[in-house]
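The data are passed on as follows:
___
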Amino acid sequence: MTKDNSVQLAQSAVNWALDKKAEEVLRMDLTGLLDVTDYFVVATGSSEIQVRAIADAIIDGAVAAKNKPLSVEGRDSGHWVLIDFVDVVVHVMLPEVRQKYKLERLWGDATMTWFDETGQPIETGQPIDGGESASSSEVAS
């Protein structure tokens, strides 16, 4: 998959997640940080049913766009679903799982973009203490 295709799939995953009312949707650009993937998309669902619905929407949308996932893990439990497209890996989690694992902190060197409910970027930066984001201007200082 080319870099352009990766970013397009990541953005599509953001939009498919938002179509199912996912919250705290984040795209992490891991280019140059990891050899195995270019992007993480992280989204929160408020219940197990919503986590599965978000994951299913992403899988269905990707398959319709001819991007079948390599693997899907955790769908049955609905706590944390990982969808691996190789160059894009999607994580859909319950709030308590996301808080526990804090992927934003784990991959703190990544450029992170948060999205509003319409899919528009609302903030880009890197996380600071507690996993909250720092805007681009705060990161530079």
Summary: The first helix runs from residue 3 to 19. Residues 74 and 81 are 5 Å apart (CA to CA). The radius of gyration is 14 Å.
